[in-house]
Amino acid sequence: xxxxxxxxxEVVWSSQDYIQTLGLRYEVLRRPLGLMFxxxxxxxxxxxxHVSAKFAxxxxxxxxLTPHEKSVKMRQVAVxxxxxRKGVGAKMVVFAEALAIKNGFVEMVMHARDSxxxxxxxxxxxxxxxxxxEVGIPHHAMRKNLVD
Length: 148
Ligand SMILES: CC(C)(COP(=O)(O)OP(=O)(O)OC[C@H]1O[C@@H](n2cnc3c(N)ncnc32)[C@H](O)[C@@H]1OP(=O)(O)O)[C@@H](O)C(=O)NCCC(=O)NCCS
What we know:
By secondary structure, the chain is of the alpha+beta class. It contains four helices and eight strands.
């Protein structure tokens, strides 16, 4: 049950896999903060790029890329509790960067939870500016050039 058996792929908005990512995002990102899932996000995400990590039929990780001009914002990065620290998150980010480059984007940006900063630093991201609060917890903006 290692990271090698994980399949990273693009997910079609509103597909079965996409619905599974909504459940994962609630469990990993919202429920621990006492937040509900907001159904209105569903429609707003139609134009985003969705990525999942699957073990057999199960979605164990996901992230979203939201394009903005030549940059792309990576958000909603989540790995299920049982699968954390097994390389799944890193594999998804590497996949997302390649996808972004293929689509002509030159920079990846994000609002990282402070608890996840070591993860992004390990993948070559840098902190950009002062910290701030989002969803009630501390964050920092982070970024990485996708092209030299
Ligand atoms: C943050 C998260 C996406 C990382 O995914 P992951 O699959 O657990 O991370 P990986 O196993 O790919 O970690 C890759 C490297 O990042 C670093 N890293 C990851 N989590 C870390 C942590 N909590 N503390 C320190 N370093 C960490 C390590 O260098 C790690 O390599 P190593 O395990 O060989 O030491 C995942 O843990 C998660 O979903 N956390 C809860 C939700 C969250 O915080 N999402 C991000 C919001 S911005």
